[in-house]
Design brief:
Layout: E1 4-5, H1 7-14, H2 18-26, E2 33-35, E3 38-42, H3 43-51, H4 73-82
Antiparallel strand pairs: 1-3, 2-3
């Protein structure tokens, strides 16, 4: 069975801030899956993303979905105001 991580889990796994992960999702820079309003990341896809030097073409990923990335507007505004920087 495939392992999925939350934004918090992926941030810990990659040793980056949650804000950075949210920025990557917002900019479609990382492979992700949206289950209702919850963002999840497949470990196997993240490993492939890392192996490809962090490049991701979401147009070629038929399972990735757009829409609301954040459950509340405040979280999205925080990323937009800070530019997603750590």
């Amino acid at each position: 069975m495939e392992t999925y991580l939350s934004i918090e889990g992926l941030a810990k796994y990659l040793e980056v801030s949650e804000k950075t992960v949210r920025k990557w999702v917002l900019n479609n820079e990382i492979p992700y899956h949206k289950i209702i309003k919850i963002i999840r990341f497949r470990i196997s896809e993240i490993e492939g993303w890392i192996d490809s030097s962090g490049k991701f073409d979401q147009a070629n990923d038929s399972e990735a979905q757009g829409g609301e990335l954040f459950e509340d507007a405040e979280a999205q505004e925080l990323v937009e105001e800070t530019g997603g920087e750590e």
